[in-house]
Amino acid sequence: MDVVVLIGRILFTTAFLMGGLGHLTATQAMSGFAASKKIPRPTPAVQVSGVWILLASVLLVLGVWPDLAALMLVVFLLATAFLMHDFWTLRDEQAKQMEQIQFTKDLSLAGAALALFAVYAMDPHPGLNLVGPLF
Questions:
Q1: In terms of pLDDT, which residue wins out, 47 or 2?
Q2: To 10 degrees, what angle do helices 66-84 and 2-25 make?
């Protein structure tokens, strides 16, 4: 079962690894979107969030403090959902629908990351880990 958990961690983090790389390679484009959402200092915010999700993903894949890594993703996803995908403020129906989908996706992924945190809080915790849970 440990191999299944490892595969699950790898699959789960794929989107975050790609997203983190996108934050760091397409910073200007993403900064424009962040600025449109009134995020203060959008360029550093995009860069910091990119490093944040890359770090969380690598920690989770390697099984280094996987509980902390899962919580890092929860923080990122909730912040992103409410700050970046605020569909309730939009009037254009098509834009509203797209942002609502992204908001719901982020909430769902935050729920999955929270469940991962809970799994790693249990003893024994699953998976092939380099370092056990921090908490």
A1: 47
A2: 40
Please write the tens of the pLDDT for every residue from 5-18. Answer: 999 999 999 999 99
Q: What is the tens place of the pLDDT at every residue in 106-122?
A: 999 999 999 999 999 88
Distance CA 66, CA 13 (A): 12
Greatest C-alpha distance within the chain: 49
pLDDT of residue 132: 82
* Amino acid found at 112: A
For residues 84 and 31, the answer to whether their CB atoms sit within 8 Å is: no
- Distance between CA 58 and CA 46 in Å, rounded? 18
Read off the amino acid at residue 11.
Answer: L
DSSP 29-86: HHHHHHHHTT-SSHHHHHHHHHHHHHHHHHHHHHTBSHHHHHHHHHHHHHHHHHHH--
Residues 70, 117 contacting (CB under 8 angstroms) = yes
- In 3D, which of 118, 47, 48, 38 has the Cα closest to residue 83? 38
Using a cut of 0.90, tell me whether the model's pTM lies above it: yes
